Amino acid sequence: MTRRSTASGWRASWSSSPARPMTPADRLKRQVLRGAVRDNVETIRGLPPPSLRASTRLRRGALQATLLVALPTLGLLAYNPLSGSAPDRAAVLATAPSVLTFRAPKAIVPVTASLTVKKIVLDPGHGGNDSGARARGVWENEITLAIARDLRGLLKRAQYDVAMTRDADTFVSLRQRAQIANVERADLFVSIHVNSVPSQECHAVETYYLGPADDPRAEQLAGNENHESGYQLADFRRLLEGVYVNVRQAESRKLAQAVQQELVQVLGDTNPAIRDKGVRSAPFLVLVATESPGILAEVSCLSNDEEANRLAEPAYRQRIARALFHGIHEYAEARNRVATLGQGPGSQ
Amino acid sequence: MTKKTDVLHVGIDLGTSRSSISASNGGRHVIESYVGWPVDMVARRLVKKPILFGREALDSRPMLDLRRPLERGLIKEGSERDELAVRELLRHLISLAGGRDGQPIRAVVGVPAEALRVSRQNLRSAVKGVADGLMIVSEPFAVSYGMDALLHTMIVDIGAGTTDFCVMRGRYPTEEDQRTLTNAGDSVDDQLMSLVRAKHPDAQFSIYMVREWKEKWSFVGEAPAPVVVSVQKAARATPIDITSEMRRACESLVAPVTETMADLLARVEPEYQERVRHNIILAGGGSQIPGLATAMERALGEYGGGAVRVVEDPVFAGSNGSLAIALDASEGDWESLAG
Fold first, then answer.
1. Model ipTM value
2. Residue B95 sits in which domain range?
């Protein structure tokens, strides 16, 4: 069924309009229109949008050249986020995954300098075509995004700089998520997920940091969360090498402990059945490739009907966000206190 | 060189929920953005068409592979069927415009900003071949162009799948000038459905019914009248009052939209922020929710006040803007877009 508008024909008489001198408004329109045409022409040519390339050019001029490392087997570009040359976040998202790769993350130098927490990158799990777990009309990709947005608000109010790996229901590969965290020069990386297990009785809350899986279930969970990664098998070993003996792991564990404690305490008030599954380690790819201390929090269990109902409530999601905030803030405060004294917590 | 008068120029608003076309021959049409193919030979014999569009497709949905190709404002990556649905939808819209046989067609297609950002190449390949010249722009940009609101203006386009924000600063908008939220018409539907289901667990109704309720009786603030709808309870038509649920669902848009407006405003040069704040244009189907613009103005009070106006013709504001772009583009522009 179609509807025919009664509106008068748009510029029906344009062809008979007499020529008139160009006004400033006409010039403005012409300029804007030229931008639209250019954008389309460059899409036809397979180039990213002009705005992205322009900002990349600016950064290229301002910063030292991106470190290029030959990877003959992959034939790809490599980029070292610690080299001081960072493409911007939009460019990371706009670039096809096949032309982005990494070098093994570098160890954080044990903290004798003042390494404080300022920038936090939040990573709402899943998104777009990858909707994650689903139960009772509640989707994991939506829950994680809602919690991340609430958490962002809380962190911003506490004067942290916050960036998100996604701020809409869009697909972002694990590779891109890690790249975003590195490009944003995150001090902390917090990935938010919701558990789903075969048992309906699950009330578990657990927080992971990078390390070898400490039980088969953790390994299976890491496997589930690692799909759609954008990495190849050949990349995996390189990623893992040099990571484990790293201050980053110790810092990540401390952050995980602070967050887990708050999650259990705050959510336990609402739901006494919550089980504290503790702090675990597992090789989540999104944690492997980030440069900063990072955690992956499984903040609830969607396969439990009661939890699914609670997660549909904004108030409950806000509670989760508050718990995450308190955990992050507590860790950051402790680190900032030690940094002020000239001693990193890593040296404790 | 093609003479401009020989060409049929069309502007298309390819929306998640509805799609409209405005043509240089004066034609204006709107259809619901559904495309459906009969699932088997029996269905094909019953519907008597190889492909159905809009309301006709929706009404025959049990017999169709029904697609809403820009669900959540995006063309689904890797889904050939959805790409085909986009192409067929555009072909259908252009056929409605009624060009002469063999008349060259130049089309400007406005799409949700997120679709353009995330899958511009997919879109381009999906719509290739439907017209002799083709330009794709973001929907809020098309609206602003059609309204000559290209400077110190913010367009908030509340569609079905997404709400798109765009600050116009006298240039073609970049990534930094735009935002997209998934709080939009569909999220209001989902929320309304959950709220009504929670209050009336024994009631039977579908998301399509909820969508119709919202389109007829949505509001923010004071209810113009009680909202009473009919649902099935134990196979019996039963009236239920959903006034407060309707209010809550519609008001769920206000906070996220206002916060995003403020976030985007904060990135405008400080000397122009006040001007932009007082020049906010609400477009898209969501702009028609009674009381929404007023609620947003009230919420903007926290940021120093602002003025929100609603486009006069939300159904065709996007396609009219796209048509304006098509008509203003020069012959050289169109030649550069060939291919």
1. 0.84
2. 4-145+316-336
